[in-house]
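Following up on my earlier thread - several people asked me to post the actual chain instead of describing it. Fair enough. Here it is, all 180 residues.
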Amino acid sequence: MTDQWPYPPPQDDGSARHLVPGLALPATPLPATDGHSLSLARLAGRWIVFVYPWTGRPGLPNPPGWDDIPGAHGSTPEAEGFRDVYDAFRAAGFDVLGVSGQSTPDQQEFAARVRLPFPLLSDAAGALRAVLGLPAFETSGVPYFKRLTLVLRDGTIERVVYPVHPPHTHARDLLATLAR
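Reply from S.P.:
Thanks for posting it. Predicted structure:
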């Protein structure tokens, strides 16, 4: 894969400006692909939480208009990027989680297919999106997260990356930034 990204880049529309360092996350439990329920507010230590719109499944179409939505494409390569540098994040003192609005069964299929070493959290009910005011877009009446990454320490935001672009190099770019 090259470092060139063929899809339209997202713009910073300001919809994440309220997610500031020092903000304590709400105690909103979400189901995880490993069978547990996790609340970002209760995570001890340092965490990378990448929030992504949607992962496709081979042989199934993307949502309508997906190719034209800036920032929509790239969830699979982004997750694979975090998978590929997961050990380096762990060595640097971070653990990793992904969050999307997809159902847990869809996320479990994806996590198994691409062999993710970390859990994904499902916000299919939109509870976290609503309580945190997470940036989202809609197509065909279905809401999807806009891509962003939270760097957390003990359930509190240390840093926000928004918008995330390009998604396929985001994990290694973030790791390089945090290592400085």
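The chain has a mean pLDDT of 96. That should answer part of your original question.
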